[in-house]
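Journal club side-thread
Mid-discussion, someone asked how the predicted structure for our own chain would compare to the paper's figures. Pasting it here so we can look after the session.
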Amino acid sequence: MKEEIIKPGVVRKIVEKLDDKRIIVGGNKEFYKSKYHLQYTQEIVDNVVSAFLQVMTDEIADGNVIKLNGYFTIAPKYKEARKGRNVYTNEEIDIPAKYKLKVKTGSKFEEACKRLTEKVIGGEEDNQD
């Protein structure tokens, strides 16, 4: 259960999901011999993204942690049952125990947010002058 899945494991599982999908190439076979002549079509990319999301969903459902270094870590976290309150009626309610998703961003996403902040705040300062 609590297995930590890193990038190579995610890639391997996506390849397994796409095992029955093939790139069909027509025309001159000698021309298409090199893999560099193949282009990524919308269908190919859609298959890869769908398989990636399905792998992530399956791993979270199994209780595993997904860790893509530099990007993010996603882990299911258990939340105990607790008492809550209905804000409209002020009644006390029971909130059942459940798993919630915890996402921790990595350095590459943090850097992207920093660049966005500099771009937006820098743009506002230019407009105020």
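Post-session note: The beta strands are 4-6, 65-68, 72-79, 82-85, 92-95, 98-105.
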